[in-house]
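Reminder: ligand-aware prediction takes two inputs, not one.
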Amino acid sequence: MSVAARSPAVRSVSLSRPWTARMGVPRVRMAVQSNLVSIAPMLTKLQRDCATPLSVLRHVADAMADDMRAGLAVDGGSDLKMILSYVDRLPTGNEKGLFYALDLGGTNFRVLRVQLGGKDERVIATEFDQVSIPQDLMFGTTEDLFNFIASGLAKFAQNEGGKFHLAQGRMREIGFTFSFPVKQTSIDAGILIKWTKGFAVSGTAGKDVVACLNEAMERQGLNMRVSALVNDTVGTLAGARYWDYDVMVAVILGTGTNACYMERVDVIPKLQGLKSTSGRTIVNTEWGAFSNGLPLTEYDREMDAESINPGEQIFEKTISGMYLGEIVRRVLVKMDEAGALFGECVPEKLSTPFVLGTPHISTMQQDNSKDLQAVGSILYDVAGVNSDLSARRIVVEVCDTVAKRGGRLAGAGIVGILQKMEEDSKGTISGKRTVVAMDGGLYEHYPQYRRYLQDAVTELLGSELSKNVVIEHSKDGSGIGAALLAATNSKYEH
Ligand code: ADP
Ligand code: MG
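Here is what comes back for the chain with adenosine-5'-diphosphate:
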């Protein structure tokens, strides 16, 4: 989808087009030429600032591995928190019974139930429901947010029937997927370190989020019990491993981003005495906080400075779904200001932070029509601007530049994790098949991003080694995974 990758091409392609496309009204030729003359260098500079040649990818992968090691050595040892999941018993396939999962992500809140039938029958049935989180709750009180969640869960639980049934004398058990940084204190308790991804709920930081949910369930009169608190990456890893034992890493690319992996207990200095029956545990990297050596632009810096968590979550702000559209919007505003990309003055809609979402830029990149009709419609409907073909081409080019950087850096992060694992356990990737389970709306719905990610992994590992590394979409693995972890940590025999 990349059109005219360098500025001379942009200039020559653009200038050779007729100018009648914009709402059928020809613009003054001289004015348009000078506009493009000022926009083309901006695009070139953006592409240069966002460039991720092999040397940059390698630096990011190495720094990721180093930061992981430093974070495992001691709490606060690096940008990466390297949080211990307290999951050392992974699903075996023998789990039986009815279990629930509840997933608080960033954009949505999901509930799911699964009836597990053990080794032969495996997953007998699943059902889920999804509700988007009202904006005001993201800035409200802890009580309001958890009341909303508990009431959603109560409604869902009311409609249980058909293939789902609870064994006599049992309480319904829940795997609670909570995709924000939590200091886990046991498999079913954890303290919120801080909100991310645009959430600023008051009173939750420093509290046990399982207790918050339990209290809200009590207020609802809902008789359910959280038996596992899991990060979404951990849920994805558990869910994917249920089907494929080679899954060693899980990565989420959705509203935010994070990764976890299987680690040897004996190479975690900060673990101090904690025993794991399997000798391994899942470590949640919280890699969204990574920041070392990333290629950043003026747009990233401004977005960060105006964010609710300036200086934090820089990797997340560079590669995840919440931010890619916003970075593009910021570039387009500057291009419009400096070179009247869309016309004389920047319309209010385009000036509104976060009005352009990552789904929009992804849809624009899928537009294969000759006149980039879909690009034009999105720009008009969402950003309130009229665009001619040359402007649309530049917009697509900006989307591609931002998505390419994001995808390639995500790929470099994955290689960093694999590299760290290989250093400690020779053969992790050099000797066998290793699967990286991927989930999240960004990964699922943005094919170009996905391709850029895979390209970076292949470039970094080389064609031979990269054959051993399978990067696989594990759809809704995290929901089922959380329910499976509720089962493996059930208080009842199974
Ligand atoms: P969450 O991260 O909130 O748990 P998801 O994994 O479903 O939820 O991811 C939702 C995010 O995925 C959205 O915020 C958006 O950034 C991204 N996304 C959704 N649809 C698309 C799309 N069509 N193209 C690109 N990104 C998308
Ligand atoms: Mg999620």
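The first strand starts at residue 83 and ends at 84. Residues 65 and 416 are 5 Å apart (CA to CA). We will return to this case in the review session.
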